[in-house]
Amino acid sequence: MAILLAGVAAGTINTVVGSGTLITFPLLLAFGYAPVTANVSNTIGLVPGSVAGAVGYRRELAGQRRRVVPLAVASAIGGVIGAVLLLTLPASAFKAIVPVFIAVALLLIVFQKRLTPLLEKRRATGEENGVGARVGVFASGVYGGYFGAAQGILGLTIDDELQRVNAVKVVLAGLVNLIAGIVFVAAAHVAWDVAALIAAGSTVGGMLGARYGRRLPPAALKALIVVVGIAAIVKLLA
Fold it and tell me: Span 2-8, mean pLDDT?
């Protein structure tokens, strides 16, 4: 029951801001699962929640195909690389730089208004989906394929209405989990009972997050992002 409820919470948080993994992953460790097994089982279990969240955000996704497709390709490639890194490198190697990535992303969110003129210039010149954006989501995909927490924060620096960008984040994060999950099914041990419980819970959570997340005003959503991001850094450093 605890894993199921954690899945609900993780699915909700993933749809609203990301970092739901920081709820389910520590719980699985507390239940005695090996870190890699916990990580891969959690990644697979969260995929249905992302699908539910994307369906819930379908209104905000309307008209964003030209943005989503190139970013999705970059995210998918990053997800494969991240999943391979998880299965081949020691956990300490990548985990050491993850808090830095999250901290930089939070600073970009906090100072987004000061960056608006630059973002508007990029959008006017057609550079919003250029090399910089694709590199950013690729790096986020690598991170997401490796661990998965807070991977959506970087994407929220795109210049648009926050809820529309949040909808894109849900799609990209879900795609990374799906791609990484396929790699894990082929090459890693999966605790399918755990994955099933998280999948059921995250599906409910994804629907709840999409329904109530869009009701948050931009200021509240940004504040929640910062809180979750700081919590992610504390968890990873601990």
Answer: 92
122 and 159 Cβ atoms separated by less than 8 Å: yes
In Å, what is the CA distance from 1 to each residue of 117, 159, 205?
49, 40, 15
One-letter amino acid at 112 equals Q
Lookup: tokens for 213:
């997340």
Among residues 8, 26, 2, 20, which one has the least CA distance to residue 177? 20
CA distance 237 to 221: 24
CA 100, CA 143: separation in Å to the nearest integer?
A: 12
Minimum mean pLDDT range among 138-147, 151-160, 179-188: 151-160
> Taking Cα atoms as reference points, which of 44, 78, 21 lies closest to residue 187?
44
- Identify whether the C-beta of residue 149 lies closer than 8 Å to the C-beta of residue 233: no
* Position 5 confidence tier, pLDDT thresholds 50, 70, 90: very high
Among 200, 176, 145, 170, CA closest to 9: 200
Please state the pTM of the whole predicted model.
0.76
- Determine the Cα–Cα distance for residues 232 and 175; give it in Å rounded to an integer: 21
Write the single-letter amino acid at 175.
L
Q: Where are the alpha helices (DSSP H) in 17-130?
A: 21-30, 35-56, 58-61, 65-88, 91-95, 98-110, 112-124
